[in-house]
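Researcher: Go.
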Amino acid sequence: MIASSDSSTAGAGPERRRGLAASVSGPVAGSPDGLAVAGATNLDARLIALGAPAEILAEVRGLARASGAGMVDLLLQKKVLPEPALLAALGEEYGIPFWEALPTDRIDTGFTALFSIQYLKKQKMVPLDTPQGFVVAVNDPTHFQASDDLCRLLGRPERLVILATQDEIHAAINLAYDLSRSTAKEFFQGMNEESTDSLISEIEETGDLLDETSDAPIIKLVNLLLSGAIKDRASDIHIEPYQGNVKIRYRIDGILYDILSLPRKIHSPLVSRVKIMAKLNIAEKRLPQDGRIEIKVADRSVDIRVSTIPTAFGERVVLRLLDKTSSILMLSDLGMDNRKVGIFNRLIKSPYGIVLVTGPTGSGKTTTLYAALTSINQPAVNIITIEDPIEYQIDGIGQIQVNPKIDLTFAQGLRSIVRQDPDVILVGEIRDRETAEIAIQSSLTGHLVFSTLHTNDAASAVTRLIDMGIEPFLVTSSVIAIIAQRLVRVLCPKCKEAYTPDDESLANLGIDKNQPDRHPLYRKQGCAACMNTGYRGRTAIFEILILDDPLKRLILKTSDANQIQDEAMKRGMTNLLSDGARKVMAGVTTIEEVFRVTRILKRETDLET
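Model: Structure:
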């Protein structure tokens, strides 16, 4: 189906192809309802055979005639059929091949200099070099003018037109523009080849930092840092000033990596640019400030929390990135085994009580609680949350943002929530005695309360609550379960390597030394897919402490976390280390990774070695 030589319909000249477009969307003279489409009989028959309602097809033809909108867009909006099935039917009808996946390993980024990403996404098309030759992937077979213009500007009149889903086309477009965009490091290296001093001078002389369309180097630098962090799946960007330089670091999968070292003179304009974007006071450099930035990179909406603090060598800035387009995980996606998922499901369906999730900052506590809320979110249940910040917005749930400036704290918000007739309450964090007391009172009056605590393990949460001043009998009467969790990095599936670990490592993790003979264990290697780290992505390890009657009686006698932990393990609790060992044996992560997040110093052994 090459445009210049093939005699088929799709390969004919522009006039012939525009005739096809008219035959798909133009009305048939003399049709009874005036809405029928020439050539639509066969297509309708195909779609009806696949399960499309005939009345919806007639409605779509009417809308296409009235509004001039594309047939594919209208059919997809009406959810007549799944997109792949719809495109396959259209392809068979009009002789245009449908590709389920687009080959992007040989992608040529030259077209990114001629067309904006917004234009290609609006037209839903992308040019690709493939083993079959040059192709243009489109989503609607009736839109020929845009593909004609694209090929004319590229100087590529011969091409194969194919159909592809919107997701595949958008993914290929995003990849092409990602590959064509220089990184912050490349940007600086390119400038350094000319003159570092000239770059610094140009940055210092930049007039209006608010001008988004400016070609000012500092604006380019900040944009490259942000887009690079999103591309590399970073959760945080650190801008750290020192005596002789400024370090830029990304936190990827929980680990900080040095990305860039900049000259010291760039620190002030760099921080000023970030503060302007976050609507902070650029003149105030002596006090900590917090702000927020919302940006869009390709088709991803990203919320950025900005925090600044003064240090000896200037303001240190941390930007926390939250991809708002990422979907909320379900319970089965968290990393729990089937037994733990069953226990957790029973807990979150309790009529009342407190369920606590514990762990350090960045251990995935909020993600776990959101998964719990999503699983019980239904019209019959009134769910209200108070959070700092609101990380994901969930339909059907009332979410309140903490605002200390107007005295809207966790405690104050919780007081008001209980007057809103809630069934389930989520408190972002129990930070003080007042919040803990109101949460306990809420659970004792028939509400199910979810919250978080910063403790090392599940048993320590009891000690922490009692240390806050909560009476032990109130803890045992209200708390029904405590879940501790950590995040471990997942081995890269493309480069992980089987090996036999030493006996000491196996013994420390509680794994039988004969285990590697039965099932291989893996270690990291490193490849391009994982940025040579050996890991890609993270999963959680858990321990779930159920406060049953024996444990409640023990808590009334003592708040010693070690005794509570020992008793819980006697009663069948799997601790973090054991859950990590299971993921090691399953080939999910490594022994070193589990030790990194769980190991506690043992004086009798570690201090001697």
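Model: Residues 1-40, 191-200, 202-214, 601-605 have pLDDT under 50 and may be disordered.
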